């Protein structure tokens, strides 16, 4: 006799959308979301390099950010549990923002239209 095991598939909705301005809840950096992975999609080596006591769960959205801190601009990969909305209203300075986003009339960041080659 064959047994069928039903598993529950959980649909998760990302808390932050493309163009959302966020900050890390622990570390002093902020950025703008330019891509979202529904679950962890980086290397095991990258994940294991995070200290175990602060290592995030893999079963949550992970965000690609054009990030900045007081010293530099970079791309960050951050779990949803470690992000909060940035409501400071301070402008972002990351050089890559103008390539990917434009501000709308309300001051929100919107993805630029892409033209295929």
Automatic annotation (TrEMBL):
Residues 13-112 form the Hemimethylated DNA-binding domain. This is Heat shock protein HspQ. The gene is hspQ. Keywords: Stress response. InterPro entries: Hemimethylated_DNA-bd_dom, Hemimethylated_DNA-bd_sf. Pfam families: YccV-like (PF08755). It comes from the Bacteria.
């Amino acid at each position: 006799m064959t047994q069928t095991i039903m598993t529950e598939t959980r649909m998760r909705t990302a808390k932050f959308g493309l163009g959302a301005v966020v900050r890390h809840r622990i570390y002093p950096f902020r950025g703008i979301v330019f891509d979202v992975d529904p679950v962890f999609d980086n290397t095991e080596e990258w994940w294991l390099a995070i200290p175990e006591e602060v290592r995030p769960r893999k079963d949550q959205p992970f965000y690609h950010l054009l990030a900045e801190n007081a010293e530099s601009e970079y791309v960050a990969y951050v779990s949803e549990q470690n992000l909060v909305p940035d409501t400071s209203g301070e402008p972002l300075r990351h050089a890559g923002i103008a390539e990917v986003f434009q501000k709308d009339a309300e001051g929100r960041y919107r993805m630029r239209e892409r033209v295929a080659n």
